[in-house]
């Protein structure tokens, strides 16, 4: 935990500079092969491609909405690849890179944004809870789940840990702060992974906190660390350490991944109305993919054929996402009532029959019109 005061510059854990130089960090040694770095590069490029395709699909009316991860690929892939199969993750709505690491097919993500499923996937099969729109609530779900693991004795070196993802804006929510306190006093095996992308829709970071976010952890009695969220290696190393710490019974950690939302908040938003383009240019120089590419090139760990094959794969995935999105079947309108309660419920039954009657009224109208 950092003990710097509010007046000092916060330390940013970085292993790979924006220029692609591998510097390492004494507190976070990372043994990683060239093959593993190439695999991370592939992940980063492919999720960016899935994301850009989804934005286009929304623009063409195929999706109702999309929350882009542009700029946050390293935070998500680095932390996502730090998870083991036994770990459980609780995301917000932007964690497409984490979902990728948990083996969720892109088309499964699209269903909710196309309005054809209520959720998407089986959380237990993938170790990833469903996307959560209610800001900060997943921090409490994760803490409760972690306390459950603890009580089941599922912790220890080969046990499970929990991670939850939320944004800088979510740190102002009561739920998130309650989760911090609950996790702390119960020593719950949970990692709070905050992607500080500098904006909560149009509200800048200064509106959320007078101190760097990671330092808030100290007030709850657990460690906080700020990692370069555009450095996939640092995110991997720091998250791995925090998860190991949780598994070993040392309680929660707050990881603040310092990054930037390069796109709009969602496809409903226009960031040019509230932020300067110079800010975006500054962050483009710290692009999370570019620095890995620079490192692979300068260290001679990948050749042109490798980069060409990743680009080719990205094109294929883009096309696949497009085809799969259009092929997603529309649900029967009445199915919306099916998953509300596990057991039959009179109120839901009544609403279902009223809605069925309403739908049937259109059939009558068309018959009448035809007479
Ligand atoms: C409880 C609640 N309040 C308000 C909203 C509306 N809302 C949706 S996203 C958002 C901003 C979240 O910002 P941040 O936590 O930084 O996450 P980011 O979108 O930047 O990833 C708000 C206020 C909501 N979904 N839930
Ligand atoms: Mg944010």
TrEMBL record:
Q: Which residues form the Dehydrogenase E1 component domain?
A: 44-317
Please, which domain of life does this record's source organism belong to? Bacteria
Give the matching InterPro entries.
Alpha-ketoacid_DH_E1_comp, DH_E1, PdhA/BkdA, THDP-binding
What cofactors are annotated for this protein?
thiamine diphosphate
Protein name in the entry: Pyruvate dehydrogenase (Acetyl-transferring) E1 component subunit alpha
Q: Name one Pfam family in it.
A: E1_dh
> Which keywords are on file for this protein?
Oxidoreductase, Pyruvate, Thiamine pyrophosphate
């Amino acid at each position: 935990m950092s003990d710097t005061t509010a007046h000092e510059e916060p330390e940013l854990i970085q292993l790979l500079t924006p220029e692609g130089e591998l510097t390492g960090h004494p507190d976070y040694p990372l043994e990683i092969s060239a093959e593993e770095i190439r695999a991370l590069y592939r992940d980063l490029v492919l999720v960016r491609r899935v994301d850009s395709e989804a934005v286009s699909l929304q623009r063409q009316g195929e999706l109702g909405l999309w929350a882009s991860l542009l700029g946050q690929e390293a935070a998500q892939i680095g932390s996502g690849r730090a998870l083991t199969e036994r770990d459980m993750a609780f995301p917000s709505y932007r964690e497409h890179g984490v979902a990728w690491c948990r083996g969720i097919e892109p088309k499964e993500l699209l269903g909710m944004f196309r309005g054809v499923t209520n959720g998407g996937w089986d959380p237990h099969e993938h170790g990833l809870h469903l996307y959560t729109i209610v800001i900060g609530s997943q921090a409490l779900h994760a803490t409760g789940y972690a306390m459950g693991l603890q009580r089941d004795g599922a912790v220890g070196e080969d046990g499970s840990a929990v991670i939850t993802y939320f944004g800088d804006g979510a740190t102002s929510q009561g739920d998130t702060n309650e989760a911090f306190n609950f996790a702390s006093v119960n020593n719950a095996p949970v990692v709070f992974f905050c992607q500080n992308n500098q904006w909560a829709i149009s509200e800048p970071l200064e509106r959320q906190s007078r101190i760097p976010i990671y330092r808030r952890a100290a007030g709850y009695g657990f460690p906080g660390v700020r990692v370069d969220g555009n450095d996939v290696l640092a995110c991997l190393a720091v998250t791995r350490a925090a998860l190991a710490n949780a598994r070993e019974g040392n309680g929660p950690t707050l990881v603040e991944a310092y990054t930037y939302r390069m796109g709009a908040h969602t496809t409903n938003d226009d960031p040019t109305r509230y932020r300067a383009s110079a800010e975006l240019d500054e962050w483009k120089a710290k692009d999370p993919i570019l620095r890995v590419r620079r490192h692979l090139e300068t260290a001679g760990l990948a050749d042109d054929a490798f980069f060409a094959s990743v680009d080719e794969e990205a094109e294929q995935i883009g096309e696949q996402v497009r085809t799969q999105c259009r092929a997603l079947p529309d649900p029967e309108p009445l199915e919306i009532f099916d998953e509300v309660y596990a057991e039959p419920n009179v109120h839901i039954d009544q609403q279902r029959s009223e809605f069925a009657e309403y739908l049937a009224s259109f059939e009558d109208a068309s018959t009448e019109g035809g007479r």
